[in-house]
Design brief:
Blueprint (H helix, E strand, L loop, with lengths): L1 E4 L2 E4 L3 H12 L4 E5 L13 E3 L14 E4 L2 E5 L5 E5 H4 L4 E4 L1 H15 L2 E4 L1 E9 L2 E9 L2 E6 L2 E4 L7 H4 L11 E10 L7 E5 L9 E6 L4 E9 L5 H14 L1 H4 L2 E11 L7 E2 L2 E3 L15 H20 L7 H25 L4 H11 L9 H11 L4 H4 L5
Parallel strand pairs: 1-12, 2-3, 2-13, 3-9, 6-15, 13-20
Antiparallel strand pairs: 4-8, 5-8, 6-7, 10-11, 11-12, 14-17, 14-18, 15-16, 16-17, 19-20
Helix pairs in contact: 1-3, 1-7, 7-8, 9-10
Bound molecules: flavin-adenine dinucleotide.
The site of flavin-adenine dinucleotide (FAD) has 39 residues, from helix 1, strand 3, strand 4, strand 10 and strand 14.
């Protein structure tokens, strides 16, 4: 069996794996990225919405992956009350609708330029583990059995991650911590290309929401996420079809792409053990409230790449614990807070969403802390106090 030798072997060629690879190769170490699909960035499994903060992370050089610049976000409660967050109010949280295939390919181009080897059609099948550390990974490359050896291994293999399990990290997800998604890219629709729209409600999308992310004024990603504990995955498509049927501006749209996938909306798990590091969706770094994971995959990927490079340079696996500290510093608090908010929001009925929207529709979000926001909510609707008190303090 042919054997490939690297300092670091990364399973998964999504944003997390590609950014990790880039920073390891930049430091002068050899890296292999194993991607089971035949092409980086394909198939797209994404709503393609990303915050403008992506610009501050410095992970791309070309900008051809930005398809549409968004002015603001609008959230609609079940009775149609709209909460508008303009660019000034929402700050970095408004963003872009991107071409995800181009974005991932740009990350791959840079990783390759820095020296990483990217193996597509390379499915990592199993690991040989000794003393809690991976020694080699057995993979199918172009249908042939091959092996990859390395000093450090990375699981950037997405929501269904296997790499963590190989070293006994508990990667199981409860149904209440997974969102089933379905999405159409619809052409020939009439949409307001300045806004991303979110529709919430227990009856509309239990435990999740429906999104309209415009790619242009006549094409949009229209998708739904539904908490798996509330539904079977088939329900997501049914609910989305029902929603589209009721909206005049969407009904005549023609699907040019359909996709189904899952998003972890869990608390992060242990992100390293022995010589193994988990990044991105594999580490459950997706935002539990929004389901957005691109930015966090990039942030975690950079911390992972830089830490792994140090561990290789100093030949000290114990340095990998710096990775856990590093990503927790950057996104840990946000993940925990948004997990609490997701847990709470998944209990709301339609009336509660309506009351919330009514309370916040005129608020300037920039000036308010979470505490201040909750105070404003309960002043207008005191009955919300009981529901929101777990978020105070
Ligand atoms: C329907 C949907 C809509 C979404 N919309 C948004 C959005 O609008 N904005 C946002 O920020 N996030 C969104 N997300 C989440 C976002 O796509 C993920 O958080 C992000 O892709 C995580 O990056 P990653 O690199 O960790 O994982 P992935 O992008 O999933 O990459 C993992 C890669 O590993 C490969 N792989 C898996 N197992 C193996 C193996 N054994 N061998 C080799 N390769 C393997 C896979 O083929 C895949 O390419 C959405 C997700 C879904 C499903």
């Amino acid at each position: 069996m042919e054997t490939y030798e690297y300092d670091c072997v990364i399973v998964g060629g999504g944003p997390a794996g590609l950014v990790t690879a880039r920073y390891i190769s930049e430091a002068g170490f050899s890296v292999a990225v194993l991607e089971r699909d035949r092409e980086i960035g394909v198939p797209v499994l994404c709503g393609e919405g990303v915050s403008r903060n992506i610009d501050n992370l410095g992970v791309t050089e070309r900008r051809d992956w930005v398809e549409n610049e968004i002015v603001g976000a609008r959230i609609f409660s079940p009775n149609g009350t709209m909460v508008k967050m303009s660019a000034e109010r929402a700050g970095g949280e408004t963003g872009y609708v991107i071409d995800r295939e181009r974005f991932d390919k740009e990350l791959a181009r840079i990783a390759a330029k820095k020296g990483a080897d990217i193996f597509v059609m390379c499915d990592a099948k199993k690991a040989n583990v000794e003393g809690g550390e991976i020694r080699e990974i057995e993979a199918k490359l172009d249908g042939k059995d091959v092996k990859f050896t390395g000093k450090i291994f990375v699981g950037a293999d997405g929501v269904e991650s296997k790499v963590g399990r190989w070293v006994d990290i508990d990667t199981r997800l409860k149904p209440k911590d997974i969102v089933s998604c379905y999405e159409y890219t619809l052409s020939d629709v009439e949409c307001d290309k300045d806004y991303t729209d979110f529709f919430v409600g227990r009856s509309l999308a239990p435990g999740g929401y429906i999104w309209i992310f415009p790619k242009s004024d006549d094409t949009a990603n229209v998708g739904i996420g539904v908490l798996a504990s509330y539904s079977k995955s088939a329900l997501a498509k049914q609910l989305l079809d029902k929603f589209i049927e009721k909206k005049d501006f969407l009904r005549k749209g023609k699907p040019v792409r359909k996709l189904a996938g899952a998003v972890p909306v869990a608390l992060p798990i242990q992100s390293y053990r022995g010589n193994v590091v988990l990044v991105g969706d594999a580490a459950r770094h997706t935002d539990p409230l929004t389901g957005g994971g691109i930015i966090h995959a990039v942030i975690g990927g950079r911390v992972a790449g830089e830490t792994i490079a140090r561990a290789l340079r100093e030949e000290k696996l114990s340095l990998l614990e710096e990775y856990e500290k590093g990503w927790r510093e950057k996104i840990g608090k946000k993940l925990e807070r948004n997990y609490k908010m997701k847990e709470l929001a998944s209990t709301f009925d339609d009336k509660t969403f309506d009351k919330l929207a009514d309370s916040v529709k005129d608020i300037n979000f920039e000036e308010l802390s979470t505490r201040g926001l909750i105070k404003a909510l309960v002043t207008k609707h005191p009955s919300l106090l009981f529901k929101l008190k777990s978020l105070i303090g």
